[in-house]
Specification:
This protein is an alpha/beta fold and 360 residues long. It is built from nine helices and 13 strands. The protein folds into two domains: 16-256, 3-Layer(aba) Sandwich (Aspartate Aminotransferase, domain 2); 259-359, Aspartate Aminotransferase, domain 1. It binds 4'-deoxy-4'-aminopyridoxal-5'-phosphate.
Length: 360
Amino acid sequence: MVRVYNFSAGPAMLPLEVLERAKDELLDWAGTGMSVMEHSHRGKAYVERAAAVEASLREVMGVPDNYKCLFLQGGAYGEFAALPLNLSAAGQSIDFINTGDWSTKAIAEAKKYAVPNVIASTKEGGFTDVPDADSFTVNPDSAYLHYTPNETIRGVEFDYIPDSKGLPLIADFSSTILSRPINVTDFDVIFAGAQKNMGPSGLVTVIVKDDLLGKARVECPSVWDYTQQAAADSMLNTPNTFGWYLLGLVLDWVKDNGGLEGMGQRNKAKADVLYDYIDGSGYWTNPVAKRARSWMNIPFLQPNAELDKQFVSEAAKAGLTNLAGHRSVGGMRASIYNAVPLEGVQALVEFMKEFAQKNG
Ligand code: PMP
């Protein structure tokens, strides 16, 4: 078996231990003589496991009792619609901080249901920084403030939590959840597509504070209605049973590897290795302001962009895959989520050194 280092932005690399455990359990899960995928979501075995996975998420992230954890479908993109439908009234404004492509998409989606109010944007600078913490004013009449702690495409990450001045604070944690400790009570809704740090695609986790429930509009699809889904333990309809199960295996792996403290140390070390090399290389550059550099998604450019394709294909031959930048921005990008080991980042740096020597 040859496993590559997969630098994909998502669906992304999963821990080998998780995949091996899933493989071991695939045909006969928990001694039931069938795969977890073949179990009814209403059956005792599955319901118990689903509850255990939720308990595990609560333990790992420190989710207090006055928050619900929902396991839904429709991805984080679906949440861009579900949020206004659950939390705003028609015609009400919603504050946004726009730091990149995913914030932009969330704003466009919210516009179908409410009135987005962009209180800060780094678009003019090409989305290479976060706004200063004191540079924006929230509208007290808005339903909530939405922001993206980590913008996956351009690798821009907040180094502070925006002060929402009492508005509910909604955070799109898709590409940074489980990457380090956070204080859940700093947020009112945390949501994340699973396919980066949590498991396979097709599952989206929404952690929502109780006092935001009960506000969904009548036209909100029931499967996205947080109140209905909370009352049904996320099983109003058939959930992504396999994704939910696999999240449990990933959480066990996180616990075995030092919890979120462990993840944070590991991820900081990995990011330091790559940024230090890029900055000192005299060949590669990262366009993001130092304070806003992501630990998870690291874009890098070379002097002659015509060599990008060659780099990406030679790297793939060397077992370093999915290094092309997002199709909208070009260049290269290494996504180094939890499951990418330090050795993978070191191997990438070695490869980048050789490439720079040959082409510099
Ligand atoms: N938000 C962010 C920050 C993302 O990175 C992504 C996906 N890459 C999305 C939202 C959309 O997620 P999904 O594909 O799960 O709908």
